[in-house]
């Protein structure tokens, strides 16, 4: 088994806090263990060179067997929450995972019959850790009120999100466990402990293998005691261990990674661990966690895979074909109940994610805005046989679009115009140009088409306001669709009457990815 060596100084951004951290990393890893490194760190290697919840009944909570999704809301034009809830129900999705406790979303989920996991962001851990009253107030506001008055079926509370990422430099080491304890105590006091369970979604680098096989798994040495305290607490409260695993990152991080090992349809050089055969990186990663739990006295602890998925754009390996291959393979394992060598049976997991989010930070990579099973407007990206037997995803209904018009480069504009470069730069800084790049969905556009794509992206995100298509002597509004092949020039949906949350309004394109686009733009001019 060959080893891979990473030695780099990385600047990493966490998806929920958008805080930058610099650190040194030296890691020796076998292929199977690549996705055990924290996801955010591996994702950011790019700047150097669906959620389906498949939850089963757990020992702690009586859950229905069904399909669920992570519902993220970092979009400039989020679909109305009621539309999203109908989308979930039309596709037989019975569970949803949220990253906060947004009241608009929770109200939309009332009496829907959909089971919910609400989230507590990392920036709330300090106050919850230092005040039991703060925890009780949070539970009263975000759990009790919805469960009792609007019948929202809340089953889990995710306390933080990947709080032990090395890139946080220990920022949450002292607050995560106390916050978890206080939230659990508040849930008990509210009389909800038999219904609502706590968990902490962990990044996959909280465990590791000092050997080349999953059976050598154990928790990371620098947080070993803390992890055991948390695991014991979760076990005592009959709560699950949640972990995020991304096989895509294994392939994204290393061009020599064997591509078939990232999927579920067989790999000729499977890993043999004392008779247990691993033909894909996910099962090897998952069983490394199982081994870590067994080694420390928790052989039967429930596990939820908090995040797993495959993006469809923004990278040469992020495409519809690979995403369908991965998602269908994962779903098939869930339906068949095959599980892993150390944990036979259906996998309990969330596929990331439901809908594309065009306002997400792309510091980890341009693919960050393309994890959805559905496009921004609720259209399914590919055929997918769900666990309920349907062979295709059902699109969102009654989606309202803006006018069928596009902002494009004027036919009379010259590519030598000195205003082109700053205009394209401004457009991409304030919109989404992540589909422009090498071997992406719009990577084959010529120079004029590249410019038109940038202009139109800005124009659509700005709600087709006339002033947003007034690049000096360069742009015109056209009623002829400029889409080319698989590259779609979008028409944006109408703004939702109810903004999901404030972060949906913030959109800035990263400088690194903008430079990448400009490089391709310049090449197209040659």
UniProtKB/TrEMBL annotation:
InterPro entries assigned: GH (IPR017853), Glyco_hydro_17 (IPR000490), Glyco_hydro_17_plant (IPR044965), X8 (IPR012946)
Main location: membrane
GO cellular component: plasma membrane; side of membrane
Subcellular location field: Cell membrane
Keywords: Cell membrane, Disulfide bond, Glycoprotein, Glycosidase, GPI-anchor, Hydrolase, Lipoprotein, Membrane, Plant defense, Signal
UniProt-recorded Gene Ontology molecular function terms: glucan endo-1,3-beta-D-glucosidase activity
EC class: hydrolase
Keyword Nucleus: no
GO annotation terms (biological process): carbohydrate metabolic process; defense response
One Pfam family in the UniProt entry: X8
Domain spans labelled X8: 405-489
Membrane topology: Lipid-anchor; GPI-anchor
EC number: 3.2.1.39
Record's protein name: glucan endo-1,3-beta-D-glucosidase
Organism: Cucurbita moschata (Winter crookneck squash)
Gene: LOC111446059
């Amino acid at each position: 088994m060959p080893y891979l060596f990473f030695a780099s100084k990385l600047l990493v951004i966490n998806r929920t806090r958008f805080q930058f951290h610099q650190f040194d990393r030296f890691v020796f890893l076998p292929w199977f263990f690549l996705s055990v490194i924290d996801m955010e760190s591996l994702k950011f290697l790019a700047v150097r060179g669906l959620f389906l919840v498949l939850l089963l009944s757990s020992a702690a909570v009586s859950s229905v067997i069904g399909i669920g999704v992570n519902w993220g809301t970092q979009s400039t034009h989020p679909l109305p929450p009621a539309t999203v809830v109908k989308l979930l129900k039309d596709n037989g999705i019975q569970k949803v995972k949220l990253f906060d406790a947004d009241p608009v979303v929770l109200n939309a989920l009332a009496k829907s019959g959909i089971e919910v996991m609400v989230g507590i962001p990392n920036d709330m851990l300090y106050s919850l850790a230092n005040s039991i009253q703060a925890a009780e107030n949070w539970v009263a506001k975000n759990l009790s009120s919805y469960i009792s008055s609007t019948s929202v079926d809340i089953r889990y509370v995710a306390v933080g999100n990947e709080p032990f990422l090395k890139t946080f430099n220990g920022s949450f080491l002292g607050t995560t466990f106390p916050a978890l304890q206080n939230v659990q105590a508040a849930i008990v006091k509210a009389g909800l402990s038999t219904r609502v369970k706590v968990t902490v979604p962990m990044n996959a680098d909280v465990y590791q293998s000092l050997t080349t096989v999953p059976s050598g798994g154990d928790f990371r040495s620098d947080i070993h005691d803390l992890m055991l305290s948390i695991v014991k607490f979760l076990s005592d409260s009959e709560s699950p261990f949640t972990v995020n695993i991304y096989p895509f990152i294994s392939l994204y991080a290393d061009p020599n990674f064997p591509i078939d090992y990232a999927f579920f349809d067989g790999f000729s050089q499977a890993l043999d661990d004392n008779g247990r055969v691993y033909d894909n990186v996910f099962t090897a990663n998952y069983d490394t966690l199982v081994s870590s739990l067994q080694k420390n006295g928790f052989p039967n602890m429930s596990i939820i895979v908090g995040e797993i998925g495959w993006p469809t754009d923004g990278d040469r390996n992020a495409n519809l074909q690979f995403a369908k291959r991965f998602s269908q393979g994962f779903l098939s394992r869930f339906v068949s109940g095959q599980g892993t060598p150390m944990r036979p049976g259906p996998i309990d997991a969330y596929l990331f994610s439901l809908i594309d989010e065009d306002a997400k930070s792309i510091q980890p990579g341009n693919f960050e805005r393309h994890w959805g099973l559905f496009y921004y407007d609720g259209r399914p990206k590919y055929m997918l046989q769900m666990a309920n037997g349907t062979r295709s995803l059902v699109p969102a209904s009654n989606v309202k679009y803006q006018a069928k018009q596009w902002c494009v480069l004027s036919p009379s504009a010259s590519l030598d115009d000195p205003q082109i470069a700053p205009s394209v730069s401004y457009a991409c800084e304030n919109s989404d140009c992540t589909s422009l790049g090498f071997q992406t969905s719009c990577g084959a556009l010529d120079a004029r088409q590249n410019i038109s794509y940038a202009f139109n992206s800005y124009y659509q995100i700005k709600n087709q306001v006339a002033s947003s298509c007034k690049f000096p002597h360069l742009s015109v509004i056209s009623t002829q669709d400029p889409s080319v092949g698989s590259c779609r020039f979008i028409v944006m949906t109408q703004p939702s009457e109810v903004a999901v949350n404030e972060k949906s309004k913030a959109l800035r394109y990263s400088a690194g990815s903008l430079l990448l686009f400009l490089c391709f733009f310049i090449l197209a001019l040659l």
